[in-house]
Design goal:
The chain has about 210 residues and is mainly alpha-helical. The protein has 10 helices and no strands. The chain is globular, with a radius of gyration of 19 Å.
């Protein structure tokens, strides 16, 4: 059997999975380390495509890959931040976390962490721009990595499930896969932008 025959014998879905799942994993890990990557939109898009093209169990794969990648990325970033906390000169990773955790958000995260302990981690991954202030609050509170990981695991599971549902919803609204992906990305951006817009409107309407 030549190479062409072998390639033709492989189902397109298998090829999509072989390329898509590792790519999703790597991009979500990268997005956890470098927050400029829109990981929520990636998960929603993968779920929308799986809704149209893949077997039912593919949604389970999307969920597992996204949750595991988010957990691994968060754990590595927290470990790097903890190393920076122990170093006299800090580290660029710790500085990157601090740069993305405004003082007001950090103070709110510290107060909520003091009141609700690890349950705050779950909400921090679901609230746009909430993950890093809470992570920095945990670092300043000198949480060991094991304690952070124990609270962050359900947070990553909830995060993956939330954005997967958004993707399935977007995929179910339209007959074409690209339309479902576009809808999923639009929903993700809208949900991510809503809290920021609300804070700005509230700041303008508040007296003084």
């Amino acid at each position: 059997m030549n190479l062409l025959a072998i390639a033709e014998s492989v189902p397109p879905e298998s090829t999509q999975q072989a390329v898509g799942y590792p790519s999703l994993f790597l991009l979500v890990v990268l997005g956890a380390l470098v927050p400029v990557v829109p990981t929520g939109a990636l998960v929603s898009s993968a779920a929308a495509l799986a809704f149209h093209h893949s077997a039912p169990q593919s949604q389970l794969y999307v969920f597992g890959v996204a949750a595991l990648a988010a957990f691994l990325g968060d754990s590595v970033l927290y470990w790097l931040g903890a190393r920076g906390m122990r170093s006299k000169n800090g580290s660029r990773w710790l500085n990157a976390i601090r740069d993305r955790a405004p003082q007001e958000r950090l103070e709110q995260a510290q107060a909520k962490l003091h009141e609700h302990d690890v349950t705050v981690l779950i909400l921090s991954r679901l609230v746009p721009a909430g993950r890093l202030p809470v992570m920095l609050a945990c670092l300043l509170a000198k949480w060991p990595l094991r304690r952070f990981a124990r609270g962050n695991l359900p947070a990553c599971l909830a995060w993956a499930a939330t954005y997967q549902v958004i993707g399935i919803l977007g995929g179910s609204l339209f007959p074409e896969p690209w339309q479902g992906v576009a809808a999923a990305v639009a929903l993700t951006v809208l949900i991510s932008a809503a809290p920021v817009v609300w804070r700005r409107v509230r700041a303008r309407l508040s007296p003084g």
